[in-house]
Amino acid sequence: MPQQERAIRTRWAILEAAGKVFDEWGYEAATIAQILAQAEVTRGALYFHFSSKEDLARGVLDTAVTTEGVLPQELKLQELVDASLLLAYRLTREPLLRASLRLSVDQRARALFGTRWPDWIEVLAELLRQAGANGETLPGVDPVQVARLLVGSWTGVQLVSDAVPQEGELVHEIAALFRLVLPAIAVPEVLPRLDVAADRPLRLMSEAGVPAPN
Amino acid sequence: MPQQERAIRTRWAILEAAGKVFDEWGYEAATIAQILAQAEVTRGALYFHFSSKEDLARGVLDTAVTTEGVLPQELKLQELVDASLLLAYRLTREPLLRASLRLSVDQRARALFGTRWPDWIEVLAELLRQAGANGETLPGVDPVQVARLLVGSWTGVQLVSDAVPQEGELVHEIAALFRLVLPAIAVPEVLPRLDVAADRPLRLMSEAGVPAPN
């Protein structure tokens, strides 16, 4: 394996390990020793990539805002739904993504590093602005206010779903959340055209030629 | 002051102090010493009421599920809205309530004590069942599923509102959340009769003769 590729893989393995430890213990209680044990790398390798626990947390948080897998759609509201469903689908499969959300919720980490919620709000607000310009949204839909509510709702539904499990995975609850809020966002002509099925992420990924994680 | 009343006040002061410390530091990093300093009581007084940090956390969590201030209404959906708005109004004024929510979100505390979300889900699901029996809800509204989504959304909107402040307080965002979801819950004849104004908690409390906190 070329040296550069190996370095990228090691960095990623360390980030994933940090994510798992932060996720289980919370930022404050997590230690570099735990992360080393989880990553199965040497102390030297870890410090080559990250100078401190703070630096590791920033690295984890930098993975939080991702629209990977979202394809351009005729309806901008569909792209908004797709971004939200894909994130739910990936979150249960990618520990790093899960950890980045957990660090936003962790009060100590939040005080130190802030959250990526403002970036997510801006991503969804921009999609809502474009949807508004296309005549897809009801009059009175304020892009920033609705984006704030969607980011908040998505986050909280994930937390409750995790703490009070039920049958079916997160993507089903996020799909149900969108069926609950879309009638107050989309105009009646657009509403029935939106695909909010829980298996949409899988179909999108196969369309994009991305191999499904599992 | 009679001795019993003094004991109740001391217990409450300790719980409020524990709430503040848990809220700021997270459960894992919080120490009894910090709680003592915050409560301004003796170590003896604290241990008379609570045997450990675990015991303090349980005491804080026990205050989490409250429908104080909710009055019986003709529409059960109005009671559901009232419970949600009142909690938002009180949360910004009562550190203990805020801390009990924060402990539910804290991953370490959650692993040790669980959360009060199942109780909240049951409170809202029961109101939705009654609303359904009264013909207030649309066909297809599943009380437990919608209650889960509402508890999740409420929690996450509070988190994001706290982390990414904007003008106006939490109760305005929770009111906006309900305006977003109610069209998919209430039948068209009931929807315009629901009062989802942000000043409703204040009016309810004055109606009940409760002095407003501030």
UniProtKB/TrEMBL annotation, chains A, B:
Keywords linked to the UniProt accession: DNA-binding, Transcription, Transcription regulation
Coiled-coil features, chain-numbered ranges: none
InterPro entries given in the database record: ArpA-like, DNA-bd_HTH_TetR-type_CS, Homeodomain-like_sf, HTH-type_TetR-like_transc_reg, HTH_TetR, Tet_transcr_reg_TetR-rel_C_sf
Domain annotation HTH tetR-type: ranges: 8-68
DNA-binding region: 31-50
Gene3D superfamilies the record matches: Tetracycline Repressor, domain 2
PROSITE patterns, per database record: HTH_TETR_1, HTH_TETR_2
Record GO terms (molecular function): DNA-binding transcription factor activity; transcription cis-regulatory region binding
Name of the protein in question: TetR/AcrR family transcriptional regulator
Organism in which the protein naturally occurs: Streptomyces triculaminicus
